[in-house]
Amino acid sequence: MSDSHGLTAELADIVNRHHHETDLFIHCGDSELEVGADEIAPFAVVRGNCDFAAFPAERIEEVGGVRLFVTHGHLYGVKTSLLRLSYRAQETGAHVVCFGHSHLAGAEQMNGLLFINPGSIALPRGRKEKTYAVLTIGGGRAHVQFYKVNGQPVPGMERTFSI
């Protein structure tokens, strides 16, 4: 997820809803919560442009042999292009890039990299639904399903990629 901008009950609801099927919870920045906040504790968190400096600007995670590069995106100009973000992800050896900042939900594959922006559970742009994404990895495939903050799948926002 990304760009929750101070919401806390929604974070807990999402963790409770998916904890049984999730190896890793990621927050792509702009939580606007303090580093030690209980609500953010289950997440691998990066710093967004509205966050405290104590969060890292980027992180590398690995799940099922797939390397994920996580950043907010503001340092890479993601509102205009994914090119700089792509270069940085390639430097890290990532297969998947998780980012936020634009509040625009979407998933696309370019040059062998899978880019996932979960949108925002607080202030969505481009569509009315407040969204987060669940990534399922297995058998050389990455399945991305977007959900509304209430846990309902977003119609038409489900994709599967080869990785």
Set out the fold topology.
Layout: H1 9-18, E1 25-27, E2 43-45, E3 58-63, E4 66-71, H2 83-92, E5 96-98, E6 106-110, E7 113-117, E8 131-138, E9 141-148, E10 153-162
Parallel strand pairs: 1-2, 4-5, 5-7
Antiparallel strand pairs: 3-4, 6-7, 8-9, 9-10
Tally of individual helices: 2
First-residue to last-residue Cα separation: 21 Å
User: Widest sheet: strand order?
Assistant: 3-4-5-7-6
DSSP summary, beta strand count: 10
Oligomeric nature of the chains: single chain
State the share of residues found in helices, binned by percent.
Answer: 10-25%
Write the CATH fold name: Purple Acid Phosphatase, chain A, domain 2
CATH-level-4 superfamily name = Metallo-dependent phosphatases
Strand content: 25-35%
The figure for the number of domains is 1
For the record, the CATH class is Alpha Beta
Query: What is the residue-mean pLDDT, rounded to a whole number?
Result: 97
The ordered H/E elements are: HEEEEHEEEEEE
Going by CATH, the architecture would be: 4-Layer Sandwich
Major beta-sheet overview: 5 strands, mixed
Describe the structure.
Pfam families: Metallophos_2 (PF12850). InterPro entries: Calcineurin-like_PHP_lpxH (IPR024654), Metallo-depent_PP-like (IPR029052), MPP_YfcE (IPR041802), Phosphodiesterase_MJ0936/Vps29 (IPR000979). Its cofactor is a divalent metal cation. Residues 1-137 form the Calcineurin-like phosphoesterase domain. GO terms for molecular function: hydrolase activity; metal ion binding. By secondary structure, this protein is mainly beta. It has one domain (9-162): Purple Acid Phosphatase, chain A, domain 2 (4-Layer Sandwich), CATH 3.60.21.10. 12% of the residues lie in helices and 35% in strands. It is built from two helices and ten strands. The chain has helices spanning 9-18, 83-92; strands at 25-27, 43-45, 58-63, 66-71, 96-98, 106-110, 113-117, 131-138, 141-148, 153-162. The chain has a five-stranded mixed beta sheet, with helices on one face. The longest helix has 10 residues, at 9-18. The radius of gyration is 14 Å and the shape is globular. The relative contact order is 0.17. The model has no long low-confidence stretch (mean pLDDT 97).
